[in-house]
Known about the structure:
Layout: H1 3-14, E1 34-35, E2 42-43, E3 51-55, H2 56-61, H3 67-72, E4 77-81, E5 89-93, E6 111-115, E7 118-119, E8 121-122, E9 125-126, E10 134-141, H4 145-148, E11 155-161, E12 170-180, E13 185-196, E14 201-212, E15 217-218, E16 222-224, E17 231-233, E18 245-257, E19 263-276, E20 280-281, E21 289-290, E22 297-313, E23 316-334, H5 336-346, E24 365-382, E25 389-409, E26 425-447, E27 452-472, H6 484-491, E28 504-524, E29 527-538, E30 554-567, E31 572-584, E32 587-591, E33 597-601, E34 605-617, E35 622-635, E36 670-682, E37 685-696, E38 699-700, H7 705-711, E39 713-714, E40 717-728, E41 731-738, E42 746-750, H8 755-758, E43 763-766, E44 771-779
Parallel strand pairs: 6-11, 15-21
Antiparallel strand pairs: 1-2, 3-10, 4-5, 6-7, 8-9, 10-11, 12-13, 12-44, 13-14, 14-18, 16-17, 18-19, 19-22, 20-43, 22-23, 23-24, 24-25, 25-26, 26-27, 27-28, 28-29, 29-30, 30-31, 31-34, 32-33, 34-35, 35-36, 36-37, 37-40, 38-39, 40-41, 41-44, 42-43
Amino acid sequence: MARLPLATAICLAMSSAAWAQESTEEAPVLDAITVTAQKREENLQKVPISIQVLGTEQLDELHVTDFEDIATQFPSVSFQRLGEVPSNFQVYMRGVASGGDGNHSGPLPSVGVYLDEQPVTTIRGAVDIHPYDIERVEALAGPQGTLYGASSQSGTIRIITNKPDPSGFAAGYGLEFNSISEGGTGHVAEGFINLPIGERAAIRLVAWDRDDAGFIDNEYGERTFPSSGITINNAGVARDDYNFGDTTGARAALKIDLNDNWSITPSVITQRQDINGSFGVDPDVGELDTNQYYPQTSEDRWTQSALTVQGRIGNFDVTYAFAHLDRDLDTESDYNDYAYWYDTLFGYGTYFYDDNGDLVNPSQYIQATNGYKKQSHELRIASPSENRFRFVAGVFWQKQDNDIQERYRIDDLADSLSVTGWPDTIWLTRQQREDQDQAFFGELSYDITDRLTATAGMRFFKVDNSLRGFFGFNDGYSSNPTYGEGACNTQNLPPYPNAPCEVFNKTVKEDDSLGRFNLSYQINDNAMVYATWSEGFRPGGINRRGTLAPYLTDYLTNVEFGWKSTWADGRLNFNGAVFSQDWEDFQFAILGQNGLTEIKNANNARIRGLEADLSWAATYNLRLSGGIALYDAKLTENYCGFTDANGNPETNCASPEAPDGARLPITPKFKANVTARYTFDVGSFEAHVQGQLSHEGERRTDLRTAERLILGQLDEYSMLDLTAGFGRNNWNVDFYVKNVLDERAELSRFTQCAEAVCGDQAYTVVARPRTFGVRFSQDF
């Protein structure tokens, strides 16, 4: 599997026979695509890395409205939405996924997301940017550690916006109405305006409002707790189309050309996303139904201010990029399953009473506030790209803060059981997390011959990650002397803001280096092959349960052979890569005691795969594109579930939780999509029809054998989208149907607490049912 596609591509590329032209008429050609993946402008077909691109027209044609839609278009990308916190999602690339990520005190993401020059990946994951007025989206597969750092261990996604243009006025808008089968109705309204200010400056203003309809019904239900006989119902939150949301935002950018060599571009983008309901369905209730007993809400507000300065000093390009991201994520989560199943199995309900000593409803719900701040600076210099010897070098500094507050509530709880100062709170997490990253990086390229180029890169980094604060119970409920108020009262610990005391204060510091080496050979003007060795990393950190040992940095080493080729006089591009990746001591997050996320280093894994994409201008009217990804991702040592005294994973055990050879979760063995678009004239109108078919194979829900058997597998699925429309001059009307076959595509599965306890009540996040929409757009 690994050798055949590469061998075929090389043989085809070196063949002297030209692609026969069947028609004597002038043939259509594919537009050249310019990317900046390697921190300089280059033709996509000349860049010796695995990269896929969606341009402005493709984003519009595919009706891409959120990050999930973006991820669907790239076979190398996997996307997982966590249903209990709807605005929280994780992005994975090339099968580098262990599962369980996304907690505010979990591992850093393994995929970096950039908006222009600035990173927008917070500790909990990337922000869900509404993709309007976007120039292109670049997906860089494989470790990008030398140029992009810690959160680009397995890949990087770059969202490039349209910039202010002093050359002329431009404006546009789009209005969309959509309806979900068995669900509600939604809309999208968006627009932009580009205003020149003299000959050397312009401002670009963008705004959007998106209403996402719900399609999951929260059915009326009752639940009786075995220990007390107390019965509750969800009449207060039961409703149809439960999982709805609204997203509003705006972006403003100003570009000033100071002279022919220097420009500055300050910008600000802000967005608010309000989501109600869980995105998980309970098959025991119904196909698109659930029973939730307490509010499930998410309010995600963020603003990023940025400044980019670009210029030239002599023949060298200089770029400075600054960004400040401020994100507030407030959530409410139903934690009633935790209470019910612990009561069913362990008599949990007898532990909770009011001030009179009477048993109370033991249901828990979580009210959480997370405040993220992220600031970054990057300064780099690049030599002229036409030189035989050229380089890119820079310095990078980044600091992330997360102010964590999670309150686990039980109504009418006795004061003697509540955390001091927090009525009705059985458990409190009040912590401050800080992640710092400093680096010096550079890449050197040398044209050994006119066709053979060698590139070497290094990144020297230093990370400083800390976590401090309080977590635990009132000592009236648990007098454990290692955490909670039991530790406050026995260890004379220092105070902590809005908490009984500071239970722990830990720091992890590391410094190391990463490397990359690439050889590319330009067979002819239309074909190139390359080989790459590269490294990526993800820093270690401190566990939310501060009594646990820190987790260590994990590293990814990639060996890749790829090709870029253009055929049929520019009508067809065929690109691809085969690779093998070794993932060392990877970080693995699980739901541990009290339902808290625990991160441990697992062991080693290996991911081998093939990725390929094709674009073909078959005729002036018909364009075809598609991509495939094949992965073989598995453990190469036993996962025993514990580490030694130094935090290194143990692999020698009688009954491993996951044996050597077990498949990694989330990523399928096979993923593919294909799109066909046909344009034609109807009188004075330009019309089009389009279809896209995407397929994702079966996936494992968990790395561990026992938990995987409890949760089951995620079934394979295929989804078909159709579009038809027409336009004239500067306006267009599109009619579309997404998920034409109304497939119940299973995207992820989760439980509210550890699978061994709550596994009988697992929830499945499913794709939107069949959706009909109409969109009108106009440009000026």
